[in-house]
Amino acid sequence: MIVKHAPALLVAIPLVAAYLLPLFARRLKHLVVPAALFALLLCSAGSLSLLFQVMHTGLIIYHFGNWPPPVGIEFVVDRLAVFTVLTLSLVGFVVLVYSIDDLRHELREDVRGWYYTLFLTLLASLYGMAMTNDIFNLFVFIEISAIASCGLISIKEDRACIEAAFKYLLLSALGSGCILLAIALLYMVTGHLNMTYLAQAMLQAAELYPYNLLASLALLVVGLGIKAALFPLHVWLPDAHAAAPSPSSAVLSGLVIKIYAVAMIRLLFQVYPAAFLARTPVAEIILWLSTLAILLGSIFAMVQEDLKRMLAYSSVAQIGYVFLGVALGSENALTGGILHIFNHAVMKALLFLAAGAFIYATGTRKIRDLSGIGQTMPAAGVAFAIGALSMVGIPLTNGFVSKWYLALGALDAGRPFFTAIVLVSSLLNGIYFLPILINAFFRKPSGNAAAPRALPTPMTAAIVVLAAAVIVFGFFPGRMAGIVVLAVHRLLGVWQ
Amino acid sequence: MDNLIVRYISRIFLPFVQLYGLYVILHGHLSPGGGFSGGAILGAGMVLYALSFNLPEGEKNFSPDASTILESGGTLLYAGIGLFSLLLGANFLANKAAGYPLGTPGNLFSSGAIPVITLGVGMKVASTVITFFYRLIAREGGQNGAAD
Amino acid sequence: MVPLTEMLYRLHQNSFYFFAIILFIIGFHTMLTHSNLIKKIIGMNIMDTAVFLFFVATGYVRGGRAPVLVPGEERAFINPLPSALILTGIVVAVSVTAYALSLIIKLYQHYGTVDAEEIMRIRRGEEQ
């Protein structure tokens, strides 16, 4: 029976756990970490049960407080939501396991308990964002996640983190203001906040009040664009993701920015009328911005000396793929874009965690100081290599799968130019990842890299699990792609 | 700050401020106001106390420990009510559908779970306002900044 | 072309929205152009307030009263939903402001200034 309530519990369990932890931290210190792990384990079980239910019935609708819409808040779990929730559970759990040991050297002891509170709050809000069908509820979750993710950065109280967190917070507040104004504009002309009702009411509103819809669309694209770090609104990202503690970087780069993209996909495909969108240049704008993101993100990444900063710029490029898929809008391209949400989450989390392991073991984050690290730290080194190759898009890694769909999708949409962009960007990725690998595996170990500290087992295990996931989903992409294809059918309104 | 008039007036005012805060929280389901407004009033009362006396005095009255417990407790009360309706066979945060007694509209004890939820929100907001205040005014190493 | 009187009348009818947008732009401008971090936060609050005003205005009914049901009295009520939503928005704005201010305090401890340009200058000086 409890399974029926899985959508609500996915949000409630991490939130309850997040608020229990400060109480534990006072008296029962040793219970903090197990409690956090247990909460996420429950969430993973919940998301798996959601998967089975959705595979069975196709759609789960949950009304909070038994209030039917349009009055009550509604969670709709479709395949897109299940796909996102699975990504969140997998990556979130692995990063949490990793963080237990990593935080010992990155955070002061008295704030370490708060880290888990913030982490669980963040995950609760991300789960909520993936499933909610109420646009104001979406805004609330966006705000919770904004504050929690800034907290995850500023909790490490050095200068760079505080500065990065402040920059992120300010831009994020700007984005929230835009999103709230957009919601107000939509509510003004439709009188609804539930996305399903909103979509119906908008068909009429598009004729009567086109300017309201246009303004709200622009504000939403800008607001969510800032939060998803769509080029050129990405300026906060490199600082924030590079300065944060490694587990935070993994979860921020891997999960948080993607969820805003999911929210944007929902709004563009399920709320705004397609006929209205066709009259606006929004798809073209996102298309060209994502192209710029892909190219310039990679070029910026090339000149970085700091390993984590390079990975952060690479995230700017990779979020471009997601938006490229959205903007091209053909079935294959959209599949590629959405699939890349999962694939990039796994490989970027892997890369950040491996980078964190290098930093943990050697104390340096400069790329050129890491020569020979692949020989002295074989497990983390090989895992990093797998992640990097997947980033480049070598076949039999999961990065290849989404790029393949994207390239096909660009051809389907009749824009072969963007297929070329996908190929060129793979080349660019190769240009900045391969030297690191060559440096790590074929140079003589020197300096700190020659005698690294031993890595605790949970950290190694977390990295290995993610590396295995990259390979497994590269060899057998069918399952995930199957879910995504069905999700795309629902988005595009094609039912077989 | 050490000012007799301020101290004296705030000492007279404080009970009324607190009482009003509680009133607004408890009547959240009947009149404008509720958990957030009432909690903010309660919290502001404590901030007034800490400002007009001194910080250690204020901390003695309302320790950071107590605020941690209240903060978590308020949220847990809210979530607990939500989860309890699952046990009663309704959806998360259900009120009437979970079978809570609704009472007569307009009475203090009415509208099922809402007063309890409002109370939880009030606890949370009051303690959060106080925590905000202490955290903003506290310096590194546990010294208080009001002295300089 | 709409005659001027008609235009003024319409402006008067929609004055809430008009002033909300003006406030929004003031806040936006303050937030982006001032280098003093505290002023940035003030700008952010002005911007948020503008959005709140706009949202609450969508639910306002001329001559309406607070939506508290009194049995046996029939009068127009304002739409309570936007007000309730904006209460949430205010809570969020308060938390963001408090958090931002605490970050500013930390920045001040590190740099001894709350001016963004000054901080940039100090950092650039250190890098060289």
Distance between the termini of chain C: 61 Å
- Secondary structure tally, helices of chain B: 5
Largest interface: A-C, 27 and 29 residues
Helix and strand string of chain C, N-terminal first? HHHHH
Overall mean pLDDT score of chain B? 81
Shape of chain B: elongated
| Helix and strand composition category of chain C | mainly alpha
Can you give the helix content of chain C as a percent range? over 70%
Query: What is the general shape of chain C?
Result: elongated
CATH topology of chain C: Helix Hairpins
Task: Describe the protein in words.
- The complex is a heterotrimer of chains A (about 500), B (about 150) and C (about 130).
- Chain A is mainly alpha-helical and about 500 residues long.
- Chain A is about 80% helix and about 0% strand.
- Chain A contains 20 helices and two strands.
- A two-stranded antiparallel sheet of chain A has the order 1-2.
- The longest helix of chain A is centred in the middle third of the chain and has 32 residues, at about 160-190.
- Chain A starts with 5 loop residues before the first helix and ends with a helix.
- The model of chain A has no long low-confidence stretch (mean pLDDT about 90).
- Chain B is mainly α.
- Chain B is elongated and about 55 Å long.
- Chain C has about 130 residues and is mostly helical.
- Chain C has a single domain (about 5-125), classed as Helix Hairpins (Orthogonal Bundle).
- In chain C, helix 2 (about 15-35) runs antiparallel to helix 3 (about 35-60).
- Chain C is elongated.
- The interface of A and C includes residues 169, 183, 184 and 188 of A.
Any chance you could write out the topology, listing elements then pairs?
The complex is a heterotrimer of chains A (496), B (148) and C (128).
Chain A lengths: L5 H22 L4 H26 L2 E4 L10 E4 L1 H28 L2 H23 L3 H20 L4 H32 L4 H14 L1 H19 L8 H7 L2 H26 L2 H6 L2 H21 L4 H22 L2 H32 L10 H4 L1 H15 L5 H15 L3 H27 L14 H19 L2 H15 L4
Antiparallel strand pairs in A: 1-2
Helix pairs in contact in A: 1-2, 1-4, 2-3, 2-4, 3-4, 3-10, 3-14, 3-19, 4-5, 4-10, 5-6, 5-10, 6-7, 6-8, 6-9, 7-8, 8-10, 9-10, 9-13, 10-13, 10-14, 12-13, 12-18, 13-14, 13-17, 14-16, 14-17, 14-19, 14-20, 16-18, 16-19, 17-18, 17-19
Chain B lengths: L3 H23 L8 H18 L2 H7 L2 H24 L26 H24 L11
Helix pairs in contact in B: 1-2, 2-3, 2-5, 4-5
Chain C lengths: L3 H10 L1 H19 L3 H22 L21 H32 L4 H12 L1
